[in-house]
Amino acid sequence: MNYPVWELGMGAGVLIAVVSILHVFVSHFAVGGGLWLVVTEMRARRTGDDRLRNFVKSHSRFFMLLTLVFGAITGVGIWATIGLISPHGTSALIHGYVWGWAIEWVFFFVEIAAALVYYYGWERLDARTHEAVGWIYFAAAYMSLVIINGIITFMLTPGGWLENREFWTGFFNPTYWPSLLIRTFGALAIAGLFTLLTSTRVEGGGFRWRLTRWNAAWALVAMAGVVLSAMWYGSAVGVWRENEALLGAIPVLPKVAGLFRIGLIATTAWLLVPLAVPKLNRGPLATGLLVLALLTMGAGEWLRESGRKPFTIHGYLYSTGMLVEQEDWYAENGMAAGTKWLSEETREDPLRMGRELYLAWCQPCHTENGYNGLRPFLALWNEETVASLVPRLEHMRALMPPWYGTEEENSALTAYLMSRKPREKTGPGAPVLTPERAFAVSCGLCHTPRGYRSLAESMAGMTPAEIDEFLDEAGDLMDEMPAYHGPTEQRTLLIDYLHELGNPPTEADAAERSAS
Amino acid sequence: MIPLAANVILPAPDALPLPAPAFLMRLLLLLTFYLHLLAMNAMLGGVIITFWARLRRRETGDAWDTLADAVAGTTPALVAATVTLGVAPLLFLQTLMGQFFFTSSILMGWGWFSVVVVLIFAYYGTYLQSFKRDRLGSARTPLLLGTAVLFLWIAFMFSNNTSLMAAVTTWPGKYFSDARGLHLNLDDPTLVPRYLHAILGAVAVAGLMLALWGRRRLTGGDSSGTFMVRTGLAAFTWTTLVNLLVGSWYLMALPRDAMLQFMGGSPVGTVLLTVGLVLGILMVVLGQRARNLPPGTGLMPVTVLTAVVMAAMVLMRDMARGAVLADLYRPGDFAVKTQVLNLVLFAGLLVGGIAIVVWMVRKLQKAWN
């Protein structure tokens, strides 16, 4: 851990997510919208349709104001944000891909200049030159995507780069092409969605219905492309299968994958409305469609980002800033020795040592109360539980990065975490402990009921007494599994849960229960 | 192993090698920074001059009013140029000095992050002044002030970050007292003169550009150019005069070792300071002379001098940072694995890209006139 840490209560990931999802949406519009502008401008000229040409012109102003300002600045904003939150990852990406970024910068430069010339060139440049500038814009914007796609996919699936450290091996990695295809169609679809919105400002009538149909058809064809290329992408991302992320190794991933699928279907289906009945395409409908697409895209990006766990660059750099090649060193020397930013006070004060280790190694992904919050868990953990979990962090099912704490460091971190345990609430308003919750804060940290490291089979046929005995012996089964230390109330509920998991009620049981 | 003072914590440079020799990266850093500085000066100085003109105007259509409109119309494109030309030096800086830059950015986390949010508002502010000026009515001047303040805030954050990245001895104290990213570099004696030097320089350069623009108008037979030349030169001469003093303050505020580099310690440093100082004085003298000449004449020597002095300042700034960091930063020790193909590809695309941009801008210019 080379760098200091920005102590961010809201959660580092949340800030990156907000900036990047908004940027990604608008920047894809910047690419696809560029093609829409020039193609539609040419169509208007070929058919002598002045109203269409005027619409393209007014849309280009909206396009410029959104992409050149918000799109471009949030792009720089992602860079600034990841530098603050993941300096190790940003530094590695920059060192490995300086020339990639520099080449992308050239395209960015041409893109920005072309956008300005295109907009200010309306009514001034002759039609052919204006269209040429439009094509230059689109080509430059698309090349930006072509380059950045290589670097982003490299982070998830670096492939042969891990062995040879060659720029182009990492660039054209196993997910490069499916990702490029999905982003290309995504960019075109988003362009259609935005024009569906701006076309609601056109006066009603034949022209508007024609325009709406053209935009809806544009977006629909592109969405079909998105769906097909998403299927290819899904099958190309081998890491998700290898690490069983979609089976629950990364808890949130199966849900996000579901949301992404639903979003794709809903967006495509919704597009049939303006295509079939253009009159229905009014402001709220078009805005709703855009919001749906934004959420869908957010789910897609979330899927990709969290699929990288526990790495920032898969197989090379952990999200904590530890390099894979440094693991042996940490295993030998402990975590504090590799933590540059430890204050003098940590030598005397174990609690302070725990806090600074927490900041350096836990805070990159966790918050106390928000995203990946720890206090809801701490509320139900006692010191024995925390102490038994800390040395086994990398075995948890969230695919946590490795932790090689010495005994002293482990107890310092345990002490700090226990100092953050919320005070127990009693009386009305106190949280109700359920069997599911008892499971989630114990076995559920590493297992799922059915799926990843499934427990249903292991529990099959076991009686509550046997499960009770099993909990006592759990710590002896293998090093990765701690003994159960939960208090009696939690233990009873956990036994109920596990018993029901292994012995699901039959229809007869259910009937008997409802009769009674 | 880099010898470290006891109170310094310095992140190790990245484990991956540099993809080109350090001197080449540094050359690119300085070159693109110089270009960024030109655009930034024109933009920020332009916003300040526009605000000044709005304050001086008495009625719609008078000379100040026309000037404010003209300059405000150029600002959005200049912001685009500033941002675009700013990306490249930031990239090369992070490659060469990431261990310094990332650390200082993290210490001032919220301040650094605020640049992004503030820039979006400021940028839209410039479009508002350009596209909706008639609709803004009396709100226009206050909004312009707001936009200027936002840009000045961004500049202040940059001054903080670029000075904090060299103030390595203050890092541990700041970080261990509070890790929430709320620090700035306010206790650094170079911060204020450094910031003022940059802002005054921006107004001077924008003033000079305004004068050159005025001269172009005059050549085209547009008499409004006279007022542009006069106003631009006045801004240029006065701010440069004050900046000579502020620059000296900045020099004196540098740590002793760094300051002495420019006073005999290093031959290059001494030459740079002498050039900067002598030519700086000459800029004021020639600027004043041009004000007394017929409008539009005498601008060329001033422009050449300014371009040279700016280059000297960029180099001095780089040297000062090198002197402050001394043994803590030895780019020559970095592992290098040059990516020749990519370097050539970049150079080729850059040349092609510039050619395309020049072609487009020329077409637009021709069509505009």
Please tell me about this protein's structure.
The complex is a heterodimer of chains A (516) and B (369). With 516 residues, chain A is mostly helical. Helix content of chain A is 67%, strand content 1%. Chain A is built from 21 helices and 2 strands. In chain A, helix 7 (176-198) runs antiparallel to helix 8 (206-236) and helix 7 packs antiparallel against helix 11 (283-306). Chain B is an all-alpha fold and 369 residues long. Chain B is 79% helix and 0% strand. Chains A and B meet through helix 2, helix 3 and helix 4 of A and helix 2, helix 3, helix 6 and helix 12 of B.
Features:
heterodimer, A: 516 residues, mainly alpha, two-stranded antiparallel ribbon, 1% strand, globular, B: 369 residues, 12 helices, 79% helix, 0% strand
Rg from Cα of chain A: 27 Å
Binned strand content of chain B? under 5%
CA-atom Rg of chain B in angstroms: 22 Å
Helical/strand content category of chain A: mainly alpha
What oligomeric state best describes the polypeptide chains here? heterodimer
Number of helices of chain A: 21
Write the layout of secondary structure elements.
The complex is a heterodimer of chains A (516) and B (369).
Chain A: H1 12-47, H2 50-85, H3 87-121, H4 127-156, H5 161-164, H6 167-171, H7 176-198, H8 206-236, H9 238-242, H10 253-276, H11 283-306, E1 311-313, E2 317-318, H12 327-333, H13 350-361, H14 375-378, H15 383-389, H16 407-419, H17 435-440, H18 456-459, H19 464-477, H20 488-502, H21 507-515
Helix pairs in contact in A: 1-2, 1-4, 1-7, 1-11, 2-3, 3-4, 4-7, 7-8, 7-11, 8-10, 10-11, 13-16
Chain B: H1 22-56, H2 63-107, H3 109-131, H4 133-136, H5 140-164, H6 171-177, H7 191-219, H8 224-253, H9 256-265, H10 267-292, H11 299-325, H12 340-368
